[in-house]
UniProtKB/TrEMBL annotation:
<dbReference type="GO" id="GO:0005737">
    <property type="term" value="C:cytoplasm"/>
</dbReference>
<dbReference type="GO" id="GO:0008999">
    <property type="term" value="F:protein-N-terminal-alanine acetyltransferase activity"/>
</dbReference>
<dbReference type="InterPro" id="IPR000182">
    <property type="entry name" value="GNAT_dom"/>
</dbReference>
<protein>
    <recommendedName>
        <fullName>[Ribosomal protein bS18]-alanine N-acetyltransferase</fullName>
        <ecNumber>2.3.1.266</ecNumber>
    </recommendedName>
</protein>
<keyword id="KW-0012">Acyltransferase</keyword>
<feature type="domain" description="N-acetyltransferase">
    <location>
        <begin position="2"/>
        <end position="147"/>
    </location>
</feature>
<keyword id="KW-0808">Transferase</keyword>
<dbReference type="InterPro" id="IPR006464">
    <property type="entry name" value="AcTrfase_RimI/Ard1"/>
</dbReference>
<keyword id="KW-0963">Cytoplasm</keyword>
<dbReference type="InterPro" id="IPR050832">
    <property type="entry name" value="Bact_Acetyltransf"/>
</dbReference>
<dbReference type="InterPro" id="IPR016181">
    <property type="entry name" value="Acyl_CoA_acyltransferase"/>
</dbReference>
<comment type="function">
    <text>Acetylates the N-terminal alanine of ribosomal protein bS18.</text>
</comment>
<dbReference type="Pfam" id="PF00583">
    <property type="entry name" value="Acetyltransf_1"/>
</dbReference>
<comment type="similarity">
    <text>Belongs to the acetyltransferase family. RimI subfamily.</text>
</comment>
Length: 147
């Protein structure tokens, strides 16, 4: 079973190489993660056997009835091992605990594995944001799950 725990500010440097590897020029900066934590958003981390960060995810709640999955990222060498699923379930569980019925997210239109993960958890595509990811100008599929 994958243990999901609270992301702490001192974890931020460990997120940056994962961001660089997975998202390249569209990666989040340390300042962006600091801002997420400073704004009280719900961020979780999964650690590997060595204590390092294997994956992380975040949820921003928009009262009274909406939340956004800000990100879910898993190191390439441990992908498809259940970490993304554990993180997503934890984020959805937090939305449920807060009584939030609508959870949305954006995912690159060319990221089929992530879209399949979200669809397995009840998300459906509801629209496309043209050129959302910059500088690649990649479109984002907006997905929604309603309880």
């Amino acid at each position: 079973m994958t243990a999901v725990e609270r992301l702490r500010w001192w974890d931020i440097p460990a997120l940056l190489p994962i961001e660089e590897d997975l998202f390249g020029p569209e990666k989040w900066s340390a300042g962006m993660f600091w801002n997420e934590l400073a704004n009280g958003h719900y961020y979780r981390v999964v650690r590997g056997p060595d204590g390092g960060v294997d994956g992380y995810g975040g949820l921003a709640v928009v009262p009274p009835d909406e939340a956004w999955v800000q990100n879910i990222a898993v190191r390439r060498d441990v992908q498809r091992g259940g970490i993304g699923t554990a993180l997503l379930r934890d984020l959805l569980g937090e939305a449920a605990r807060r009584g939030i019925p609508r959870v949305l997210l954006e995912v690159a239109v060319d990221n089929a594995p992530a879209q399949k993960l979200y669809a397995r958890h009840g998300f459906e595509g509801i629209g496309v944001r043209k050129g959302y990811y910059q500088p690649s100008n990649t479109d984002a599929l907006v997905m929604l799950r309603e309880d």
